[in-house]
Design a protein that fits this description.
Strand content: under 5%
Largest sheet: none
Number of domains: 1
CATH class: Mainly Alpha
Subcellular location: Cell membrane
Pfam families: MFS_1 (PF07690)
Structural class: mainly alpha
CATH topology: Growth Hormone, Chain: A
Membrane topology: Multi-pass membrane protein
CATH architecture: Up-down Bundle
Radius of gyration: 20 Å
Number of helices: 14
Distance between the termini: 11 Å
Keywords: Membrane, Transmembrane, Transmembrane helix
Helix content: over 70%
Number of strands: 0
Main location: membrane
Order of helices and strands: HHHHHHHHHHHHHH
Length: about 400
């Protein structure tokens, strides 16, 4: 097993403090998430209501949105490690996602939309692993949970502001979705500029790199497997918001407000749960997040759904899983292959989410929403039992 020291280039400013590079990456993510969440907040309703797609068609596109980047993630991670140019690869990814926002202006058919989403997700696939590798390499092993928690909290501020911006633009433009896409492009461009100016690359000294096959050791292999299995039985955000919209009969202009509840709770809990994961173990916190998600979808089946409780549990799920999983996996990887390893982990999740979205969309289209939710809950419950019993991540805390 590789336990990384993460000392090269770290600018921690003292024990327990978050590195300046982490804060710079957080600012970039904040701005970029305002842009991306503006689009994400309106896409489910845009696809299903404005374009008239079925839940199955939306599931295919939503799966594409998550899973199309599998090969790109691996390639980007490999190039970033081989060239020791993590910032350059991330910059390319952020730039691609920014340009993709303009593609929504002309795409009206499912095929054209799929192409635009593929470009956007290619950008995300390129940037995510290098960004997370820079966070981990700029931090000490003991504070990884806190570092990722701080980054995710800043990222979530953007996720909170994005739907508000989308709602304002829709209101000001009298429901013109193109205005949302243009505004999103402008904000994404600002994020690219901030990355180029503020973030420092973390280049290791030119030493012999371990072969890629050394990544696939027992603890990391089990982490990837169980993370992918859990992702395969988790229902995507878009479906959760569509279910709430149908039950509450929300006006399209108000629809972007739903992600705000998730983002608010995520913002409040990401740092505390990151610190808790550092102290008590990252795998138990990760599992607890999935239990919260199961509770959220259980509430969707009740006669009078409490929308605030559903969104709070949804935010808790993200706060307990997103950065916590990256913090758990990072110490298992050598610094020279950190980006490649995280890319493998994220690719497994992305492919699993693609399968999940397509299957859930098909179940909803054929047998209805309630049957789809019940089936997904049963599958999630079985996988959670296995994950709790087997505890695949034995190295839950940094060594």
């Amino acid at each position: 097993m590789y336990i990384a020291t993460a000392r090269q280039g770290a600018v921690t400013g003292g024990r327990g403090r978050v590195a300046g590079n982490v804060l710079a990456l957080g600012l970039v993510s904040l701005v970029t998430d305002v842009s991306s969440e503006m689009v994400t907040a309106v896409l489910p309703l845009y696809f299903v209501v404005a374009l008239g797609l079925s839940p199955f068609q939306f599931g295919v596109l939503d799966g594409l949105y998550s899973g199309v980047t599998a090969v790109v993630r691996l390639l980007g991670g490999h190039v970033a490690d081989r060239r020791q140019r993590r910032k350059a690869v991330a910059l390319t990814g952020y730039g691609l996602s920014a340009v993709a926002k303009l593609g929504f202006l002309t795409a009206a058919s499912p095929v054209a939309l799929g192409g635009v989403l593929a470009v956007d997700r290619t950008g995300k696939g390129l940037r995510t692993a290098p960004r997370d590798a820079l966070i981990s390499l700029s931090s000490t092993p003991e504070t990884l949970g806190r570092a990722f928690g701080v980054h995710r909290s800043m990222d979530t501020i953007g996720a909170f502001l994005g739907p508000l911006a989308a709602m304002f633009v829709l209101w000001a433009s009298l429901g013109d979705y193109n205005a949302v896409f243009v505004t999103s492009f402008c904000i994404a461009t600002l994020g690219v500029v901030l990355l180029a100016v503020l973030v420092k690359d973390n280049q290791s000294k030119p030493t012999p790199r371990p072969p890629l096959k050394t990544l696939w050791h027992g603890p990391f292999r089990r982490t990837v497997g169980w993370a992918a299995l859990l992702a395969a039985v988790v229902v995507g955000d878009g479906f959760l918001y569509l279910i709430l919209q149908q039950q509450l009969k929300l006006d399209p202009v108000v629809f972007p407000l739903l992600p705000l509840g998730t983002a608010a709770v995520y913002l409040l809990l990401s740092i505390p749960l990151g610190r808790l994961a550092d102290r008590l173990g990252r795998w138990p916190v990760y599992i607890a997040g999935h239990v919260a998600l199961a509770a959220a979808f259980t509430l969707l089946l009740t006669p009078h759904t409490n929308v605030f409780a559903v969104l709070a549990l949804h935010g808790l799920f993200y706060a307990a899983t997103d950065g916590v999983l990256m913090a758990a996996a990072s110490p298992l990887l050598p610094a020279e292959l950190r980006t490649s390893g995280l890319a493998v982990l994220q690719t497994g999740q992305a492919l699993a989410k693609l399968v999940s979205s397509v299957l859930f969309g098909a179940l909803w289209t054929i047998w209805g929403m309630q049957t789809a939710v019940l089936t997904s809950l049963a599958a999630l419950g079985l996988v959670l039992v296995g994950a709790c019993v087997l505890r695949p991540l034995s190295q839950s805390q940094p060594s």
